[in-house]
Amino acid sequence: MPELPEVEVVRAGLAPAVTGARVIAAEVRDPRALKRHLPLSGDDGLGGHGVTMPAAAAAERAADFERRVTGLVLGAPARRGKFMWLPVAGARTVATLDPGASAEWALLAHLGMSGQLLLRDTAAEDDRHVRIRLWIEHPAHGELRVDFADQRLFGSLALDRLAPTTDDGSLLPMQAARIARDPLDPRFDDAAFVAGVRSRASGIKKLILDQSLVSGVGNIYADEALWRARLHPDTAGNAISVRKLSELLGALRDVFTQALAEGGTSFDEQYVNVNGQAGYFAHSLNAYGRGGEACNRCGDPIKRVPFGGRSSHFCARCQRRR
Ligand SMILES: [Zn+2]
Questions:
Q1: Where residue 245 sits, what CATH number does that domain have?
Q2: pLDDT exceeds 80 at position 215
């Protein structure tokens, strides 16, 4: 699943090609890739995250997206945790819902498990699993395609409203309003994170996966940071010292920074950058995906145990349960 480094690599890769570009056409090939898109007409009964949609309602949702996204001018892509969005100008989007409202909008993308945003020449062949295609025209680069491909359909594009955050007033899409800052964000509040963890009895892995406490962390980087900080994934938050939590934040920052430099982690070939290329960080993993292999620190085999429908990977010797 794309986590902070992967989403950030995609965001940075899109920026030069899409910033200032106009959407000249849109084609929704599979409305299931719009599960986070809510039509302007209001509740269409499908819910915000429905995967199964009655055909007529799905077609209407697709038509709503195509109509409203066409003609928009895209701003510089931004990110909060695993959410990415492009503020849009030229919106015909607002008028019919609440005329006079000064709402600002964004084209929001969540990559889910296997979502990809690919930049392609207009004549390029189709990639696999393309669900939504945008044709854009950039004042300097001419025409390009932005293809949203998603094998497993947990991802989505959407038009979403922007609202000011409570801390510094910067604009966030409504769907990302409750997402905390990530540890690489200069405004991340270390003390609030430490206090939040120490007020809870849940296991530390569960806590760092909680996007309202710290964002951008998924299964891969949780296992990697806990390995680096020598913390057992089930250690209760309220049993961890302030010093150890500072160490964990440092480990998260280190692993994110290294993964960014190496282009992200491509596991099962589901993550690629905007040019369709894999990242290299999978070669630098110490815990995730290494069940049964020797710990790079002590040589004991890495354990793999079930965790919330997925797995946790850790070294039982380096990461003692307390
Ligand atoms: Zn070890």
A1: 1.10.8.50
A2: yes
Judge whether 143 counts as a catalytic residue: no
**Average model confidence (pLDDT) across the chain:** 91
pLDDT by residue (tens digit) across 124-153?
A: 999 999 999 999 999 999 999 999 999 999
Predicted pLDDT at 102:
47
Q: What residues make up the domain containing 194?
A: 190-315
Q: Are residues 64 and 153 in the same domain?
A: yes
**Active site annotation includes 2:** yes
User: Ligand 1 centroid to 298 CA: how many Å?
Assistant: 4
Å from CA of 318 to ligand 1 middle: 4
Check 68, 82, 205, 244 and give the catalytic one: 82
220 in the Ramachandran plot: left (φ > 0), alpha (ψ -120 to 50) or beta? alpha
185 found inside a domain = no
Please indicate, yes or no, whether residues 169 and 194 belong to a single structural domain of this protein.
no
Count of structural domains within the chain: 2
- Region 200-215: mean pLDDT is 98
pTM: 0.92
Catalogue the E-assigned strands of the chain.
Answer: 22-28, 73-74, 78-80, 83-89, 104-110, 115-120, 130-138, 142-150, 156-164, 171-173, 303-307, 310-314
